[in-house]
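User: Structure with magnesium ion, tokens only please.
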Amino acid sequence: VQALLARERRALSRAITVVENRERGFADLLAAVYPRTGSAFRVGITGPPGAGKSTLVDGLAAHWSAQGQRVGIIAVDPTSPFSGGALLGDRVRMGDLSALPDVYIRSMATRGSSGGVAAATRDVSMVMDAFGFDWLLIETVGVGQIEIEVMNICDSVTVVFVPESGDGVQALKAGLIEIAHVYVVNKADRPGAEQLATELGQAVAAKRDRERWNYPVITSEAVHRKGVTELAGELERHRAFLGTAERLPRVRREQALKDLENILRERVHTYLLQERDGWLDELSGRIASGNLDPHRAADLVWQRLLAREGTPTSRSD
Ligand SMILES: Nc1nc2c(ncn2[C@@H]2O[C@H](COP(=O)(O)OP(=O)(O)OP(=O)(O)O)[C@@H](O)[C@H]2O)c(=O)[nH]1
Ligand SMILES: [Mg+2]
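Assistant:
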């Protein structure tokens, strides 16, 4: 913890691993760094595969680090069971970034439980926050439940589209418009970008009327570093917007509630996994044969869960 707070990168990497894998002592580590958190701003970046999210993240990191700001990046890969591929992929694409002293990139492999992914990402971001990053950029692919949960732990959410998202954009829009604050149409060097930007603007019109944030829509060519400064500017503006009028404390309180929900869900899920082949199997048999109704069974599980000594927090157990 001392080395982490002294900004030693090796300590940061080690601490992230401990927290991500729920290794022994992870909860104590989090408790120790928790008082030092709260100054990083978490930006979630999501959108369809290949939209240019990493290229934009790369551009943002280069932009802010040139201004002397520290940028931490978490790439969440919900489709890959191991981190090797995702890590390598992002390292190659973000190759020049790793060389910057104020930029740190970390890939996270995700696991079965959706509550677990958001909780683990949140905890990793806490460790990075305590290390002293000014910005945390959290990239996820797609719009499933896991991505929405990960975006829910962010202070600000940016969703990236491409002109050829086409019909798919309708489905994407439905899930994402609720949670996004900034919209990007990347690959604006291809036809249809302005059209899509206009459509997105119409889709958020009601939200703009209702709230004081204007939900900007930006077009960009991340690969040519066009639009990156604009995106950085909107994110700075959103950060300032939340920072005024006591908005950020409210956002953080909502996040704290979600943290609690995620942690509790993770614990219940871990317990269920641990008991799957034992007691739960026996209960399922009784339910299936009509000897016990599922709600009574859930009561029994709940009682046993509460009576346990300690809590099921370690996934490696
Ligand atoms: N034509 C064009 N290509 C771009 C632009 N931005 C990024 N790309 C390219 O699109 C491809 C995907 O970019 P990434 O940044 O890896 O996209 P991503 O959304 O992070 O991809 P995943 O993480 O795999 O979902 C790369 O080959 C980029 O060079 C752009 O503005 N125009
Ligand atoms: Mg990417």
